[in-house]
């Protein structure tokens, strides 16, 4: 949760759709992982790539021992930890999961990432983005 000084507004830094939570739950159960780590890495056709990977309990606990505590978004038993170093780049991002649907020309299952237009732009691949100047 993000809490701002002089405000009572509390909101998750990212949005995760029900389709994405369903897939996240499934992956965590089958991989016997503890959580997902959401981060941004340098590269891609737009400057930064979205990175979503599974982590174990030890790695999760390591993040909580750092000077900057990470944001954690939860849904039932599933957790997504947002890398504190990447968080400012990821605020406003929506994570979705789409399934193949040949009638709508969707030929693969995949997570998709959509930045909030005020914060970043993305290219057609949907896996890289460029933060906007503030």
Q: How would you characterize the overall build of this protein?
A:
The protein is α+β, with helices and mostly antiparallel strands and 134 residues long. It has a single domain (11-118), classed as HesB-like domain (Hypothetical Protein Aq_1857, Chain: A, Sandwich). Helix content is 19%, strand content 37%. It has three helices and eleven strands, in the order E-E-E-H-E-E-H-E-E-H-E-E-E-E. The protein has helices at 18-31, 57-64, 87-90, and strands at 2-3, 10-11, 15-16, 35-42, 48-55, 71-75, 78-82, 94-98, 110-114, 120-122, 128-131. The strands form three sheets. It has a six-stranded mixed beta sheet with strand order 6-7-4-5-11-10. Strand 4 (35-42) and strand 5 form a beta hairpin. It is globular. The two termini are 22 Å apart.
């Amino acid at each position: 949760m993000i809490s701002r000084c002089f405000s009572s507004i509390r909101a998750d830094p990212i949005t995760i759709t029900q389709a994405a939570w369903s897939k996240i739950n499934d992956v965590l159960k089958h991989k016997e992982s503890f959580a997902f780590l959401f981060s941004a890495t340098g590269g891609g056709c737009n400057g930064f790539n979205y990175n979503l990977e599974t982590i174990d309990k030890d790695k999760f606990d390591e993040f909580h021992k750092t000077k900057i505590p990470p944001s954690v978004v939860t849904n039932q038993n599933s957790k997504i930890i947002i890398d504190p170093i990447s968080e400012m780049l990821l605020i406003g991002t929506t994570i979705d999961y789409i399934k193949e649907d040949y009638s709508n020309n969707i030929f693969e299952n995949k997570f998709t990432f959509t930045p909030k237009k005020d914060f970043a732009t993305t290219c057609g691949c949907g896996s890289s983005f460029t933060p906007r100047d503030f």
